[in-house]
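thought: user wants a sequence for this fold. calling inverse folding tool.
action: design(structure=
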């Protein structure tokens, strides 16, 4: 046991042994005996404890100060890192937003262009269909008109041919008559000669 613990044990043990009804004088004499026997050791122990306590307090203070400095340094470092990462993250986010906005704008432009082209194609197809329909109507009308003209011309030519055509039997009769007249004229000339 250390001297301090022995002193405490001695101090506590007589008090436990003493009855409560003993007077204060006995207690004072016991204290003075204790002081004579253990006083120097106790004072030396108290001085050591005081120096030790002072040293521990100083060490704790120094340690707190060092920890505070290091914590401040770490905090500053972490703040710097966080700010750096924050600025990088913000820059990346802004860049991504710019790309997203640009992509959205391009997509919107493409959609508008596609809509315009689709409308142009639809209008062109509608116009082509209308032109084909108009041309087919015009061609049908022209064909019908030409057919009617040709039919009328054929009818007129056929009528002219019928009017100009001599009937075979009439032609045969006419030729036979002419042949007879020629024969008669030849016979008359021969007779006269």
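)
observation: tool returned 193 residues.
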């Amino acid at each position: 046991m250390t001297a301090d613990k022995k002193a405490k044990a001695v101090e506590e043990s007589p008090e436990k042994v003493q009855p409560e009804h003993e007077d204060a004088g006995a207690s004072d004499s016991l204290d003075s005996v204790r002081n004579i026997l253990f006083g120097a050791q106790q004072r030396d122990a108290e001085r050591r404890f005081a120096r030790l306590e002072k040293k521990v307090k100083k060490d704790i203070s120094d340690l707190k100060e060092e920890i505070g400095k290091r914590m401040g340094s770490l905090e500053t470092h972490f703040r710097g890192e966080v700010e750096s990462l924050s600025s990088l993250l913000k820059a990346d986010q802004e860049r991504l937003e710019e790309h997203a906005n640009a992509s959205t704008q391009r997509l919107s432009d493409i959609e508008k262009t596609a809509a315009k082209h689709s409308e142009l194609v639809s209008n062109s197809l509608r116009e082509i269909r209308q032109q084909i329909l108009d041309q087919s109507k015009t061609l049908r009308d022209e064909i019908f008109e030409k057919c009617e003209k040709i039919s009328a011309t054929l009818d007129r030519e056929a009528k002219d041919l019928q009017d100009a055509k001599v009937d075979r039997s009439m032609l045969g009769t006419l030729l036979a008559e002419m042949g007879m007249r020629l024969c008669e004229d030849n016979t008359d000339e021969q007779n006269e000669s």
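thought: summarizing for user.
answer: Here is the designed sequence. Residues 3-16+24-168 form one domain.
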